[in-house]
Specification:
Two copies of one chain form a homodimer. Chain A is of the alpha+beta class. The first copy, chain A, folds into two domains: 7-75, Winged helix-like DNA-binding domain superfamily/Winged helix DNA-binding domain (Arc Repressor Mutant, subunit A), CATH 1.10.10; 92-240, no CATH class. Chain A contains eleven helices and eleven strands. Chain A has helices at residues 7-14, 17-26, 34-40, 45-57, 77-87, 92-98, 117-129, 146-153, 182-194, 211-221, 225-240, and strands spanning 32-33, 61-66, 69-74, 109-111, 114-116, 133-136, 139-142, 168-171, 178-181, 198-200, 207-209. A three-stranded antiparallel beta sheet of chain A has the order 1-3-2. In chain A, strand 2 (61-66) and strand 3 form a beta hairpin. In chain A, helix 3 (34-40) crosses helix 4. Chain A is globular and about 50 Å long. The N and C termini of chain A lie far apart (49 Å). At the A-B interface, helix 1, helix 2, helix 5, helix 6 and strand 7 of A face helix 1, helix 2, helix 5, helix 6 and strand 7 of B. The structure holds a DNA duplex (30 and 30 nucleotides).
Chain lengths: 241, 241
Amino acid sequence: MRPEPRLDIIGAALADPTRARILCKLMDGRAFTNKELSCAANITPPTATAHLKQLERAGLTTSIRSGRHVFHRIASAQVASALEKLSTLTPSDHVRRAAKPDSGVLLARCCYNHLAGRLGVWITYNLLDTGVLQLAHGALAPGPRYHAFLTDLDLDPPRVSAHRPVAKFCLDWTERRNHISGSLGIAILEKALKDKWLTRQRSSRALTITPEGKIALTRHFGLSDSALDCLGSSVRSMAKR
Amino acid sequence: MRPEPRLDIIGAALADPTRARILCKLMDGRAFTNKELSCAANITPPTATAHLKQLERAGLTTSIRSGRHVFHRIASAQVASALEKLSTLTPSDHVRRAAKPDSGVLLARCCYNHLAGRLGVWITYNLLDTGVLQLAHGALAPGPRYHAFLTDLDLDPPRVSAHRPVAKFCLDWTERRNHISGSLGIAILEKALKDKWLTRQRSSRALTITPEGKIALTRHFGLSDSALDCLGSSVRSMAKR
DNA sequence: TTTTCGTTTCGGCGAATGTCGAAGCGTTCT
DNA sequence: AGAACGCTTCGACATTCGCCGAAACGAAAA
């Protein structure tokens, strides 16, 4: 047949709004059951089954049985990153119409396994400003303060290999600006969740900044009150448009 | 509404096999008319119009009128790279069934504006081996022989800025291995086409290596006869599976 | 064992969509 | 001006697909 990639197979899997919602729900990296997903997407379990089957056949998700539950999750980090990249292309009028300013999604959210949203962008630029990371030919590399930063946060130095970058840019669909993924990005999100700087919200990828989190983020990433206000107000100002 | 990216909008645009074929045809970076595309996709002009309208509405393509012709092309490099990344996810059984071993697509093809396929992979590793490029924390950076290489090939030194990497990895859907894009990748393909080392094939992204090209590629990228045979035979060996 | 519950299969309904032929419109060539 | 050509719109047809309710299946709990 045609010696071309079958874009339509994956496209068809993404083509339905309901499936897109399911995928977005799964994009925080956790696994969910049929019932949870059908509830989140406002459909009945039979319909969810059909959708999940399609997603799995297209290779976008995987499922494992555990007793009478079946857990579904994104098939791989590769899939997650391709989907995130695709989100970038969403026509801007749709994003603006869809994004409720008071939802936390614009402020802080997780992107498969690392931090995104305005907070993610902020942290990234702070890491660059303070020399923890630096730009080298358009790519992110450890900077002079890199090891001090790891010690400060009590992080294991991520295994730095040629094939697994410490940090790389990941384009954010709400901000259209880069934030960091890579092993450092993953470690930061893990740390923030473990120490309860951020807590997951029930039914979305949004994250909430706890009081302790505010203190810690201020200390480690220079997230001043005014910066927080600024993040908040820029969210609010978007609502008026 | 939902504060989530509308993956389904782009998904719907990709969902149809015919549209996928059109996109693949456009992925070589050139612009084509309605008629050319309808012919390539085995549909009538009216149908092509409908498809191209959808692609344009989804922001994947752009069109410009020129007299009584309308040329369509991929909307941006960003779209091209997202699509290429998405191609990576194509279920492997479909790729294997679809890829005819004797078509040149596996050997050498262009990926929007740079070189891909086995030749692209080969050249990338050769550039790394010879110190033209080097790995720095998982990213590509110019190596010690970088400027000598540019002089040797009579290339203008691409503008190296922090925001426009000289070279970056681009995952190939046939090889599942990295090859280079970025300004250097673009320059190499341009040079190869201009000096007729490679010629485009009529109706696909595949490229043909000319006799002069073989000599030049041998000189500049160490592409020995045995390496060529190896590339060819590994193509052949894939056919048996 | 019986009950409960999560998941899946099946059948049917309604909406959306890919396809084409015929016809209309605008540009270019003769 | 007239003919040729490329693109688009329109109408009609067949197919696909999302969705749900009812019912079946299978594992856990009572």
